[in-house]
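Fig. S4 source data, part A: sequence.
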Amino acid sequence: ACAFAGLWNCVTINPLNIAAGVWMMLNAFVLFLCEAPFCCQFVEFANAVSARADRLRAWQKAAFYCGMAVFPVMLSLTLTTLFGNAIAFATGVLYGLSALGKKGDAISYARIHQQQKQMDEEKLTGTLEGQA
């Protein structure tokens, strides 16, 4: 979607639209290299780029993908750039959510809350007994 929208964005006379379209096609190529290197079998450095991208932490990938997707939108704010970069930005958002970690279950949170409440009550009763 990013590559097709970038190509469509290049069919204009506005230089900012052309720059945003070229950047979007570059984004698509980088996403293919990092996320689906089997699509780029005939590019010699595809495996090296993919291996390097796999070593990055999830929050680093999130920042990289979201930053890549926001730049063309800042260059040329059109529907084509918004929809074209939506998938790249969504990929960054998903990596960001995975960096936050897995959601805890309600039972463990209830236990932690109960222990915290119990400790607060013990501190309160200890200070009241110390004052008396």
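Fig. S4 source data, part B ends here. The mean pLDDT is 80.
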